[in-house]
Amino acid sequence: MARDDEKTVLLGQVGPTVMLPRQGAQLVRLQRRNAPMRVDVAGGGPVGLAFACSLKSMLGDQVSVRVFDRRWKRHADRVVWKNAADGNNRREQVVTLQSNVWAALPAEVQQRLFVDGRFSEMWPLGPDSPASKGRPRNIKIRWIEDALLDLAQDQGVELLPQAYTVPSKWDGLHVLAIADGARSATRESLKLHFGTPSRELFSLDGSPLDERVLGIRVVSTKVPDEHTVPLTVAQNRFLFNSMGGGFINMRLTAEEASEIVALGANGPIGCIGKFGCTMRPEGTRFVCDRHRSVFKPSVDKLSYLWPRILDGLRFFGVGVADVVGITSFTLGMQQMSKFTAQLSPSTYGFLLGDAANSLHFWPGRGLNTGLKSAQSLAVNLLQRWKGRGFRAADFAQHEGIMQQLQYREKSRAWTTMLMPDADGMPRGIEDRIRDGLVGPFDRESLIAEMFQRVKDIKARMGDRMGPLATDEWYLGRIQALDVRTLKVMVESGAWITREIGGDEVVVPTAAPSEAPVSARPGLSLVS
After folding, report:
1. Could you tell me the pTM of the whole model?
2. Please, are residues 518 and 525 in contact by the beta-carbon 8 Å criterion?
3. How far apart are CA 149 and CA 50, in angstroms?
4. InterPro entries recorded for this chain (predicted)?
5. Structural domain tally of the chain?
6. pLDDT band for position 29 (50/70/90)?
7. Is residue 321 a contact partner of residue 243, using CB atoms and an 8 Å limit?
């Protein structure tokens, strides 16, 4: 009989089962191989939840996932998002997912996201949305967050309504996925491992290049979503991403940005400019529901900015009565040195989403890049998990994909901030807008140039998307604009689709032959 220290007890048996030493060692190894991978996710936004749900779909009981987010709370036996009464202003933006991205999500994730009435298709096919996969899909960030939070709980993912705190000891954790945003507190606490982000590469004359943008949320439009695509692509002053409503984003000069002021009872206060508050309609004014301050341009009869805002609404067939919120934000970029770091002998950390690559959103690649990073890591973990610890070499492919994404998407975004002029010289969008606001103004010439642009865009996109409006309809939209708005649009230029186009970064998928899920059975697509 074997000695006591050579015995192995099989749990669940009636009495101990004695094994020979060699058999016992094999069983221990088998038990270790069957131990689940332990994963923590810091940040439960769209990317963090998509990563957690995708990984759980791929690995099932082989992975134990915890997700942390302070924007959640417990309600009965579920975890839900905090609302405005809890001090959390939910994001209402509409985002576009390229078909290479949404079709690569596990079927279980696709079924939860793409429900009838919860997405639309307004943008054309392109390199990252080939005809074989389908058209890009517009979807609200808020719906992504709600749907994936429910899915995570149904999958058995552990959700903790609290901010993630870096532990003093990693205690057997295999993976930490950091997805808590561009100002990631987790990344900052681990900067000795990941390094400090640099803004040097995205600077002009030694100063980081930032853009101030006004976000105007509208609840409805009087025209089909697709009809607004040529209007958006023909200029770079306004960007409208719609789903029966959505956000009209407006780029500003420094002089215009100085008008983004909130007036309190005793004068200007830090509100929309400092805290990113949303100003909501109350009669003819727009008021912050947190600070009760008033958006100054909406009540200032001498405002230069307010008429330009109204002109942008008019361009897309939106009335001021359809505006339900106005906010402002600053866009800029920074360079990361690496996205993967060994935090302990057995724990590896990974930057995902905006914590990894915070982008200028104009090219429409922010969430797409975040989901690609989540997909890359999930597939990498699926392929490399053998029931034991990882090695640095296991993540060489994922780190390479992250570096490719950084180069591809930030180069694309940088080019939209410093677009080349007719001579190929970079010209900042702020300079273009400023030049458009001063004379001389030749109204007929400006109308003719804008109308020709729109017609060219219609012809180029016509076979890659749904039906568009008539030429006469587009001419009417252009003719209704103030001459200054017209010149700004002409000066801002059309989208530089050729310059920022080309090959896209390909991310491995778990089941490349699996057909994409169009919608839940029995439900039709929204078009």
Report:
1. 0.86
2. yes
3. 9
4. FAD/NAD-bd_sf (IPR036188)
5. 3
6. very low
7. no
